[in-house]
Design goal:
By secondary structure, the chain is an all-alpha fold. Helix content is 60%, strand content 0%. The longest helix has 19 residues, at 16-34. It comes from Streptomyces virens.
Length: 103
Amino acid sequence: MRSVEQRRVPGSQSDPRVGELSSAVARLRRQLAAHPGEFRDRSIAEEELAALAALAATGSPNVARLRRSLLLIAGAIGSVSALGQGVRELREAVDLFGRPSHN
């Protein structure tokens, strides 16, 4: 199986992992907006998804910050099974960036 990193187009400046992250964030934001139910931590999920969108827009997001946002989103949405697939896709997109480096 080829990783997203291996699919990079030669001479291209854009990182395909960022595209995957942006797509996953956009999908989950749409799913969350369309979800009719209210839950206590919905605003936290919305704020962190906005933060992830902004991080992706930088083109080279901080891995530790990606993982922190993912944890907050998973905690906020975790019990809403209708959004589970979107959270899994977001986790997979964040995982493409690997582990944060420890300085």
